[in-house]
Amino acid sequence: MSNPSQTGHLFCFGLGYTATNLARQLIAAGWRVSGTCRDEARQGELRELGIEAHLFDRDRALADIDGLLTGVTHLLSSVPPDDRGDPVLDLHGDDLRGQQHLQWIGYLSTTGVYGDRKGGWVDESSELTPSGMRGAKRLAAERQWLQLSPPAHLFRLAGIYGPGSSAIETVQAGRAKRIHKPGQVFSRIHVDDIVQVLMASMTHPSPGSAYNVCDDDPASPADVIAYACELLGRQPPPVIPFAEAELSPMARSFYDDNKRVSNDRIKRELGITLLYPSYRQGLEAIHNGIADQQRKRMNGKNRADKS
């Protein structure tokens, strides 16, 4: 994975799964990374990675944001909107509008802003017609982030997976379900491919641009679970018709949208070659990584037993 050609200081609102993976890559390339998280335990974990983290949420604004952003060259937000809107912009929008020195601003959004297309294709020029409240709030947040100076880059992420957060771990934990809704497909993206897209954009800024970040292979969730079971040598769970599936309202809402998402722009404008163009390659890499870790642990145990 290539690193940005220059080094800088990234401040990230919301150092979650994706942003932390980005931070690791940037720190390895000589960057400084700071940002926010929501609790002290997470703050300690980030400190061990070399990340200066400050507590922030809707009810806890940053006390000295101007000081925290002094020397920051790049800013990213992965904080989703809540019932009242975008917490970052609601609490610090005026502060961010005063940061004229920023070279790059990024906002992690979702392909949910396109709404339901009954299995049809969308690209970045498609009409934005979110079908639910979550998608509508994302679209409103996007429009707010575009009003900053410079305007934010919008990254519309498909379903994120990667080591520690994939169908492999779901199957291993015994929580896998194969839910079938005829014709339903989802687009996905491996976290490492999100990271390389973000770093490519940071190297070649185009303020105000929107990018779909997804792989080449929209597929049904049942197929993904079945492939994870195949890799693990396990019998796949029985297929459950969507109408009979016991899902939370949140989980059920994900099935409201059915679309295929084009990723041509990240390839054409950012020069991206996907590390994992399909969930198959992504799950294989995760499975192989787990197997490698298990072998290393076993070898270490064997050496300890012999000593």
From TrEMBL:
Record-linked Gene3D superfamilies? NAD(P)-binding Rossmann-like Domain
Give the first-level EC class, as a single word: oxidoreductase
The record lists the organism as: Dongia soli
Q: Which UniProt keywords apply?
A: NAD, Oxidoreductase
As recorded in UniProt, its EC number(s) are: 1.1.1.290
Please state what the protein is called. SDR family oxidoreductase
The UniProt GO MF terms for this protein read: 4-phosphoerythronate dehydrogenase activity
Superkingdom to which the source organism belongs: Bacteria
